[in-house]
C-alpha cells in the first residue's frame, strides 16, 4: 500500500468547531481530497493559545506585526506562536502542502480583512500562511479545489 502525501488543513475546513464564533467552515466533498492525501487538521489560533469561541481579530500592522481583537486587545503573540507551531509540525511530519482557509488573519493566503473591523478585504497574507509559504510550503485555499 502506498503512503499518502500529508496535507496540512485548516481544522475549520474539516468541520472542527474552532472558528472564532465556535462554528466551522466545513467543506463538502472532502472524499476526493482524502483519497489522495492524509489530511492533518490544524488551527493556528487555537494552537497559539486562544480560546474558542474568541473575539474576531485582524492584522492592524505588518511592520511591526500587530494583531488585535475587536476589543483592541493585543493577540500578536498568540498568532505568532500558532504560526510557529504550524511550521514545526510541517517540518516534523515532512508536510509540503497546506490547504488554508481564505480571508483569515492566520490562514488567509490571498486576502485578509484590512484591520478596520469593517468587513473590508485587502490583498495580503495571514500570519501562518505567510510563514509557511516563506518556508517553501505550497499554500492552497478552498477556492482552488
Ligand atoms: S485560524 Fe485558521 S483553522 Fe483556525 S478557525 Fe481560523 S481559519 Fe480556521
Keywords:
145 residues, 25% helix, alpha/beta, binds iron/sulfur cluster, 24% strand, two-stranded antiparallel ribbon, four-stranded parallel β-sheet, globular
Strand fraction equals 15-25%
Number of strands: 8
What strand line-up does the widest sheet have? 2-1-5-8
Main beta sheet strand tally, sense and closure: 4 strands, parallel
Rg, rounded, reads 15 Å
Question: Which ligands accompany this protein?
Answer: iron/sulfur cluster
Report mean pLDDT, rounded to a whole number.
97
Distance N terminus to C terminus? 26 Å
The domain count comes to 1
What overall geometry do the principal axes of the alpha carbons give?
A: globular
Order of SSEs, N→C?
A: EHEHEEHEEEHE
Instruction: Enumerate the spans where pLDDT stays under 50 for 5 or more consecutive residues.
Output: none
Strand-pairing-aware structural class: alpha/beta
Number of helices: 4
Amino acid at each position: 500500500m502506498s503512503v499518502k502525501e500529508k496535507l496540512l488543513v485548516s481544522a475549520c475546513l474539516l468541520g472542527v468547531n474552532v472558528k472564532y464564533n465556535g462554528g466551522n467552515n466545513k467543506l463538502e466533498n472532502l472524499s476526493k481530497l482524502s483519497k489522495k492525501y492524509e489530511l492533518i487538521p490544524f488551527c493556528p489560533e487555537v494552537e497559539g493559545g486562544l480560546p474558542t469561541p474568541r473575539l474576531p481579530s485582524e492584522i492592524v500592522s505588518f511592520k511591526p506585526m500587530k494583531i488585535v481583537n475587536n476589543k483592541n486587545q493585543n493577540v500578536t503573540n498568540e498568532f505568532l506562536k500558532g504560526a510557529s507551531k504550524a511550521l514545526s509540525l510541517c517540518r516534523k511530519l515532512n508536510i509540503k502542502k497546506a490547504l488554508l482557509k481564505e480571508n483569515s488573519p492566520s490562514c488567509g493566503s490571498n486576502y485578509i480583512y484590512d484591520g478596520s473591523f469593517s468587513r473590508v478585504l485587502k490583498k495580503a497574507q495571514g500570519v501562518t500562511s505567510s510563514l509557511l509559504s516563506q518556508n517553501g510550503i505550497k499554500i492552497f485555499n478552498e477556492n482552488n479545489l
